[in-house]
Amino acid sequence: MFKKIGRYFKESFAEMKKVSWPGRTEVLQSAKIVIISTIAFALILGLVDFILLRGLYLIF
Fold it and tell me: What is the pLDDT of residue 37?
């Protein structure tokens, strides 16, 4: 059983060495895109929620 666990970790580390990791600039660019799009979607959904809530207050 311990041999299987040891082999699993050896193979996992070997696979991790094969991974092409992104550079710092690529990670920062991706993070900026995610943050900006999250803020944009939050503002859009907040605006839609506000408009629908005001519409419901007018109806009821």
Answer: 98
